[in-house]
Predict the structure.
Amino acid sequence: MDGHVTIIGAGIVGICTAISLCERGFSVRLIDRGIPGQETSFGNAGVISPWSIIPQSMPGIWKTLPGLLLDRDSPLSVRPRFWPRMIPWGLRFLRHATEEKARAASDCMEYLCGPSVDLYRRLLAGTGHEDLLAESYYIHAFRTADKASLKNLDYRIRVEKGGDLALIGPRELQTLEPGLSSDFKAAVVIKGQARARAPGQLGQVLTAKARGLGIEVVQAEVIRLSHQNGSWTIFAKGQNFTAPRVVLAAGVWSADLLRALGITLPLVAERGYHVEFAAPGVTLNHSVMDVDGKAVASSMLGGLRLAGTAEFAAIDAPPDPRKQAILTRQAKAMCPDLSTAQGSFWMGRRPSFPDSLPALGAVPGQDGLFAAFGHSHYGLMMAPKTGEVLADIISGCPANAPLDALKMDRFL
């Protein structure tokens, strides 16, 4: 059998998958229209958490949605033209808002997120950039003390699975994070975490490692796939490629390539934004989530970054400039001494399915085509294990866990 695999999409998922396949003896080509590792994962808040295992659709979420959608400064928004697609997607999302389904999704997420810190350390070993990964807590900060409780389902699930969590008050929180506003009255501290100090640079370093391993990295915009006589033709602008096996790791753009093959999936662009301040004048020791605002702040090599929001819109819709002011105010509210003078603004597109789980494995009815996309908010964390899972599947190695919940069949 020809040992070649072409991966479409050189985000962090595609890069990790390429390295895992190469380590198993495959010849790998990695294709992306842009610079590897500089799209969606570039703008991440940097959290690398074995305990980010809670799906977005949780029991009771329906109670909060109307208020969020009506608030102009809310972390959740839907562009008017997107509502025809949003309604069916949202109904599927709400059908997952039961404890039974949340726990089932959490099991899958634990499988993908659990080894993330160890796998990144292995990927970075020997690159000279091991310091891109820093040990960290993940602090969920609350302005209302009564809302912080380890009895909440999301925290109970983590504790039941072995997570080391602690509930602390304002004095302990100020000791951990002196730069944080005294408006926060309680926090849940999730230990055993790490954070990427520069997600974009992490992508660059791992791309350089991939090239050093002999992986071919090509910049080209793929527009169509075709399968004939046991081989895939990858049509790109200005050039074509052939391969016996193809991995789709193109994030939200994967859906368009599959639609041309007659496969329609409920994958949407859940757009996220960040602001980053190059000379912040304040440092956070850990990654901190403002639970009310659903945004995460982290100190990075490039400054202090606040990332958040969930904006549902067409892939190619322009960024909403109002988000910059909203996030800047939120960052200032979290860290009152923050200098916002040198700020930058970014928007990316999370590829999101209604159940918060990615599609991994063989594409039904398409011999030699494999899926590795749809990681929603968790792509940075799930990427290394995703690479391992895809490499095992393509190698014919039996999985050490049931993967049915991650198969694309669940949507077809």
In short: The radius of gyration is 21 Å. Residues 108 and 405 are 7 Å apart (CA to CA).
